[in-house]
Amino acid sequence: MEGFELDDRKKRILKAVIDEYIETREPVGSRTISKLPDMGYSPATIRNEMADLEDMGYLTQPHTSAGRIPSDKGYRFYVDKLIKFEEKLGFEPTAKELGDVKASVQREIGEMTDQIRVASELISRLTEYTSIAVTGTAGGTRRIKALQIVPVEPGKALSVIVLDDDAVLNSVIQHDSSIGPEMLMKVSTHCNLLFAGHRVEEINMDMIDSVSEATGVARTALMPVVDGLFECIKKAENTEIHTEGAVKLLSHPEFSDVGKAKGILELINREDLMVDLIKECSTSDGLVIRIGSENKIEGLNECSVVTATYSVNGVNLGSIGVLGPTRMDYPRVIAALEYVRKRLVGGELPGGNALPEGELPGGAAVRNEGVLGAE
Amino acid sequence: MEGFELDDRKKRILKAVIDEYIETREPVGSRTISKLPDMGYSPATIRNEMADLEDMGYLTQPHTSAGRIPSDKGYRFYVDKLIKFEEKLGFEPTAKELGDVKASVQREIGEMTDQIRVASELISRLTEYTSIAVTGTAGGTRRIKALQIVPVEPGKALSVIVLDDDAVLNSVIQHDSSIGPEMLMKVSTHCNLLFAGHRVEEINMDMIDSVSEATGVARTALMPVVDGLFECIKKAENTEIHTEGAVKLLSHPEFSDVGKAKGILELINREDLMVDLIKECSTSDGLVIRIGSENKIEGLNECSVVTATYSVNGVNLGSIGVLGPTRMDYPRVIAALEYVRKRLVGGELPGGNALPEGELPGGAAVRNEGVLGAE
DNA sequence: TGTTAGCACTCTTCGCCGTCGAGTGCTAAC
DNA sequence: GTTAGCACTCGACGGCGAAGAGTGCTAACA
């Protein structure tokens, strides 16, 4: 909108200011920037440029005689156009940590969600921010692999379902006690035969009728069993959420006010809100960044959330969101999320393996889905 | 040790000081106590008594010209001798909340630990402190109720075990793929027959041999299956921990320093430490109170922990600990824990239903297991 | 025309200091 | 044994001035 974007020098200065501010959390003055190697302008020049950037809304001033700090719009421009996609982790993340991740991917049947949780822990450790993992966005894409009804006591049984991503679900069935254990086993076998390989929503009354016919159990008597199965499956659709490193937020000076910190931590504990927050971004593969006021949740206005959605072979594993102060080390967070993607999913980024080159230094592989797009 | 305990007036004053301090968190002065209804002494008298109490170690002074605050020893005397056991909840805890607790006790097969978790949530809500629930102290007392091996794919199966407290466990079995699904079912049936009703540690090689014999599966081929079962059972013994309302600590002014708050919250997240902390007290039925420096965990010196262990029909369900600042509303916490016990376990306190009468006003039903006993 | 040096100005931070008030300990009177 | 009175202590609070960082503007410079 304003002219043709920013000229090169303004970009360099803006990037320098934000980098500096992310590192120090101090409002940054013209002198600091001027003394940076490769800058080569006097404080006065920088001052003029900074005043311009402030007019354009990329920077703000806490008070008249302080340095500048980035605005949400400034951060947005920064993540969209200024940061290189670079391995900014600084170290090869302790091989065995990654080992954990890989191992839990392939290891065994069990809660498939484990791997996302482990990845989330790793990411929190790598970034020193809070990491929120949400699984169960799979919706109706998963298929039933095996199914078994286990008699427990008269009138009570347990349904166990294994899905094609190896998630194991179980749920209790309260059934007509006229159905004996042997009969239940028969029902179990037939259901297994019929349902295996199907998606949950494909199960219909015809199939149930067919089970009724084959086993000789009346449909009415069969219904509680089927209901039990459905309940079990419904459970499967329930999203699970796992939060890692919430306390780490307290390390950051922006939350040195206990009241503020408490507010944020309480929000983080609100599972419904967090699920919405993370899921909202999981429609698209790749990274989504929400900066400050771009977050719809009031009270998260001083926070940023970076979300990545992971899927393997088209099966959605879940999403991981990193939550930190607006003054977040975005390059590091992005690097961490992508690093885990590479190791977890197998090296293929959704849009191809190489990242698209952006402008200026290297361009970020970041989809701009924020509310405040570049204008 | 010092003379014969405290005389009646000193007790009244000490109780008044601690009550007041718990309520206001301000050092309490002689004037405040003097003006209390039913006190009937001038500030000067109170002052003398308070000076005595300070000499005896029950009170301390933050600085010369401030009021008195209780020492750990003061709190210890308070919980041991001064507080009445009274329903200090202030309200009938929202019937439906308790409904939840009761319902989850009887309702259904599922993780037995659910009920302790629900109770823990309730307690945290009632007390406004952090509540930590630890389950799995059951050790070897549980029996196998039903057992089933579910074939999943060649070489892979899932073992599902239901224990007599209705806990459901499952674990993956990697077995010799020469054992087909039908054979597995046969093994499953025989294992179920043999193991049901037994305690885990009662399973021995003879039983396994007998299964091998009955099914015709070689013992060597059977071993992976049995190992899988054992692993599943081992899982059962693992303690689970659930923390509720950790953020609530931030509401209390003693944690208004972020650094301090962070330290405590990090400790709370250390599951190993918390399990030890809670379990350590769970040897005895009833309540155990740890005040300030009585806690062995450094960093919890300004906190108190009140722990209750719950068991029904001799089966240990688990323990719930309430963690808060030393300046904790002990009567309320005790009342909450006992209230839940009554509703959860069925009204019987371990030592009989009526609480033993202590001295002074009503005597507390609290076991003194603290490090600093009354001297 | 773009860049820079210089300068006056603004605004926050920090330490200093005196006042205020709550609370104490001690003594003497009741 | 209890209480009134009083001098004393010590932290909390607010005003004040110095220090320092950073700005915006103007004028000089290449």
Short summary of the structure?
The structure is a homodimer of 375-residue chains. With 375 residues, the first copy, chain A, is α+β, with helices and mostly antiparallel strands. Chain A contains 12 helices and 10 strands.
Largest interface: A-B, 30 and 30 residues
What is the overall pLDDT average of chain A?
79
User: What ranges of chain A have pLDDT less than 50 throughout 5 or more consecutive residues?
Assistant: 102-112, 347-375
Output the structural class of chain A. alpha+beta
Write down the Rg of chain A: 26 Å
Q: Span from first to last CA of chain A?
A: 5 Å
| SSE pattern of chain A | HHHEEHHHEEEEHHHEHHEEEH
How can the largest sheet of chain A be summarized? 5 strands, antiparallel
Please count the beta strands of chain A (DSSP E, at least 2 residues each): 10
Shape of chain A: elongated
Q: What proportion strand of chain A?
A: 15-25%
Q: Can you give the helix content of chain A as a percent range?
A: 40-55%
Strand order in space, largest sheet of chain A: 7-3-10-9-8
Oligomer: homodimer
Please work out how many helical segments of chain A DSSP would assign.
Answer: 12
